[in-house]
Amino acid sequence: MNRFIPYLVLLIAGLWLGSSWRDPKPSPSDFDLGSFSRLPVLAGGRIKPLDTVARNSLLILRGKQTLRLANGDKMTASRWLAEVLFNAPVADTYPVFAIANQEVLGMFGWPQADKKYCSFAELHPYLAKIDEEGSRAADATAKERTPFQTSIYNLRNSLLLYQRLKDSIHPEKSTGFAAEINTYAAAKAAAKQNTPPPDKDQLALLRAAETRYQGQAEAASMLTVPPPAGGQPGDWLATGGALLRVDSPQAIPAALTAYAKLSDAFRAGDHAGFTQAATAYADSLQREHPDWTGRSSFELRFNQMEPFYQSTVLYVGAFLLACGSWLACPKGLRQTAFLLLLLALVVHSFGMFARMYLQGRPPVTNLYSSAIFVGWGAVVLGLVLERLFRDGIGAACAGMVGFITLIIAHHLGSNGDTLEMMQAVLDSNIWLATHVVIITAGYSAMFLAGMLAVAYVVLGVLTRRLTRDTAQTLTRMVYGVVCFATLFSFVGTVLGGIWADQSWGRFWGWDPKENGALLIVLWCGMILHARWGGFIRQRGLMAMAIGGNAITAFSWFGVNMLGVGLHSYGFMDKAFPWLVAFGIAQALLILLSRLPASKWGSFRNAARRDLTAAGFTPPASAPSVPSVP
Amino acid sequence: MTALHRLLGAISSLRLTVICLAAAFVLVLAGTLAQVQYGLFFIQEQYFQSWFVWWSYTPTSFRLPVFPGGHLVGAVLLVNLIAAHIRRFSWSWRKLGIQLIHLGLIIMLAGGLATDLFSVSSYMRLKEGQTKNYSEDDSRTELALTELTGAEADPVIAIPGEVLAKCGAISHEALPFKVVVKGFYRNSDLQMLGQEGGPTLAAAANGAGAQIALKAMARATEMNQHDTASAVVEIIPAKDGKSLGTWLVSVAMSQPQDLEVDGRHWSLELRPARYYKSYSLSLLDFTHETYPGTQIPKDFSSKVTLADPVHNENRQVQIYMNHPLRYQGDTYYQSGFEPDNSGTVLQVVRNPSYQAPYIACVIVSLGLLLQFTYHLIGFARRAKSATAP
């Protein structure tokens, strides 16, 4: 019976995953947004479903992908976007603007709470002031801004984004968009044929409408009108831009007619009409642009599944089970942990490959995706180790690294669309697929080696479980993984140099990001040569591997925070305290590894031979042969 | 064991390798962090392309070497590598990987040193329709003395900035006058005289410099800043030795200044050093594409005509991101563009050892792959036997 328990757990986990694949059931008293949220638009240079636009906008404004209303009700991003697009006066009352800065709250005369979500309506009286202070902050560079300025600058950008969103389809106060564009198109047709000759008032109205559409087209944050079948992504138009080209009621693009219907149905509270309009438009798009709608529907599904959230949960489970296997029921728990880890990896891989399909790029294109990939690589390596050694350590470390890197990814992804377009110099799939992937795999290996070393120190000092065999196994694992890290870091760094030679005209320029990669290579070289020369033993190896954690973190994030060099497109500074804390934690772990044998739970009563192997008391007759494990 | 043996042993020892790697690690880490304050170029010179990192006490000229610089660490590592390679070399499958790795590293280090010493980087700025047969080096200057003869090509005497920096008297057989450098400034700030609260002392007696004040500045450190080199020169005709006075020349001045000596007309200009080519490039078209609906740049591309009468070449070339033009030892990269998209900036690199990293990379990768495959097999075998019941 016991043999089946691991599979039973796997089945339960599988069912939990499967539950998220179903389409969310709309509440009968609200709109069915299924078809609406999958409608493709072009935003940020990429064709994506409205659901993604909604989620990313909320993420920027509010820091979360969902909205919680003042009465405590939850609202999905798509539902919110529908309100913003079609019924702005109501959307204005939703608390979507997150303000965390006390001074900014104080500026409005509000109680200085920790964090406040306020609505556009609440901010409305202060718009001029926010704009004034925000523009002043905009003149300063990101480095020079005070926390107050950063906050007000972000708030101003949020308000601009919100304003542009509201204007995406029709002016926010529109009460009948269908009627408006029909009148406009008829007036244009009449003006063209001069029958009857348009009077002055009509002409003035026409000019006013055109001016407004021109403004809309220039400020639009998303392009809503697709080209006819066979068109290119560059042929999408903003609502205003499409209207300027209209010269008769028949020429109104289907997209605008559809959005006008959606808008009228939405404001009228006509659930059936809304669903029907959305489905009809989605179907017609499906016929004209099967590729774009297919991708867009897939992205909607991907958004709803949240594979990285799911694998985060599974990684924690696998980690806890693997740790548990050292306390009780070693075989069963270890196998359960292994299976859960495998399942987590499948979901994680699905998420990663889904992103690759959506973007048409290799897996690592920005910091967010690098975190996803670092975790993925470490988990693959950890699973291989677990398969080879079957002692739960590989599984525990893989689960931990997977969990931490996905949490990091989650926080890196809070700046909006993580499937952003690549800057010109990065627009090279060959180099992204080789240099970037290989160097990131090197990070994976460094972190896994570091985590294994942490396991050695923690198990050794705090418990008595670090037996001679476990210590030797861990040493072999760390050594092997460091070799792997050396291979990947070195090849990745050199390939980076060759890419730099191709695009900037120099193989090596001492740019911080390049130096960061070099630091990892040098550190690996030091570990390996010191080991071969017998200058370090088990504990020395572990201490250096833990040091590798800090160096890799510096190379991954730290150099971007220096704010110099050609790689500053990955710039971010919010994580600075975390990076410092991580570095300090590694330093403490290294100090812990330097404790004398009497303070180590596992070495207190160890044999002389084991103490020597661990590197505690080098005997006078130290062997001159290097002790390669 | 003789002292020589011991020395050879030390030179080829693993201990020295680890020490070198550790020194390199500290140097790179310190050099990276120091860039925040001093900028990339300064640190590159001080830390990486030097034999020692110096600590200097500013008010005096006292300075002390505090750490080995990049060249020293690299050179010792190179010697260590070669020595170890010679001493431990043996033909065996087990060692082949390691041998290849270290051979590749030797090539890479040697190539890196050669690049540091011999590579030259410059820029070619072209407007659409413009043709040039020279590139300009922003980090070096030259004082160009052009005789205005009215003929199709005027003779030019160019005095390199390095010579000006010595602040001596310069004469040349083709020049009917001596140029005495009164002052040379690697970086400077020019200001018009006569502004309220502004400077009052003119930099020179003649030319535009009579209305301009000159202030010496510290070298620029930021990536997006450049030094503004300036010099004050005195012109003394060779015939009578009677000084004509001083002129201010600066790369910040857009126009050359005229000068008359013995009825011959000359123009005087401090400009970025020029490297002339035996061929020319003309810019036909520059394009700057963005992603639809955004301002994110997608591609920069220059269409140029390459004309080389010597080698009978006349063809069109497209230079764009990650696709440079390599010709006659020069490599042209798409580097930037004029603010209004009317022209392109090509980076021109002449690096005789540019192939070294490519060769090294292949050799080292092969070696690493061999070595770790060899280890992995043993590793997996041991792991299997360790877990076997």
Features:
heterodimer; A: 629 residues; mainly alpha; 4 domains; two-stranded antiparallel ribbon; elongated; disordered C terminus; B: 389 residues; alpha+beta; six-stranded antiparallel β-sheet; four-stranded antiparallel β-sheet; 7 helices; 18 strands; 38% strand
Structural overview:
The complex is a heterodimer of chains A (629) and B (389). Chain A has 25 helices and six strands. Chain A has 629 residues and is mainly alpha-helical. Chain A has four domains: 133 residues, no CATH class; 113 residues, no CATH class; 115 residues; 181 residues, no CATH class. In chain A, helix 16 runs antiparallel to helix 17 and helix 19 packs across helix 20. The longest helix of chain A is centred in the C-terminal third of the chain and has 36 residues. The C terminus of chain A is likely disordered. Chain B has 389 residues and is α+β, with helices and mostly antiparallel strands. Chain B folds into three domains: 149 residues, no CATH class; 82 residues, no CATH class; 140 residues, no CATH class. In chain B, the strands form five sheets. In chain B, strands 4, 5, 12, 13, 14 and 15 form a six-stranded antiparallel beta sheet that branches. The two termini of chain B are 50 Å apart. At the A-B interface, helix 21 and helix 22 of A face helix 2, helix 3, helix 5, strand 14 and strand 17 of B.
Write the layout of secondary structure elements.
The complex is a heterodimer of chains A (629) and B (389).
Chain A: H1 5-19, H2 34-38, E1 40-43, E2 46-49, H3 50-62, E3 67-68, E4 74-75, H4 77-86, H5 88-91, E5 95-99, H6 102-107, E6 116-119, H7 120-123, H8 127-139, H9 147-166, H10 177-193, H11 200-219, H12 239-245, H13 254-268, H14 271-288, H15 290-305, H16 307-324, H17 330-359, H18 367-389, H19 393-412, H20 429-462, H21 468-503, H22 512-532, H23 538-561, H24 576-593, H25 608-614
Antiparallel strand pairs in A: 1-2, 3-4, 5-6
Chain B: H1 3-11, H2 14-38, H3 40-48, E1 52-56, E2 63-68, H4 70-88, H5 93-118, E3 120-127, E4 131-147, E5 156-160, H6 161-164, E6 169-170, E7 177-185, E8 188-192, E9 212-216, E10 230-237, E11 246-250, E12 257-261, E13 264-290, E14 297-308, E15 313-320, E16 325-327, E17 330-337, E18 343-350, H7 356-387
Antiparallel strand pairs in B: 1-2, 3-18, 4-5, 4-13, 6-7, 7-10, 8-9, 10-11, 12-13, 13-14, 14-15, 16-17, 17-18
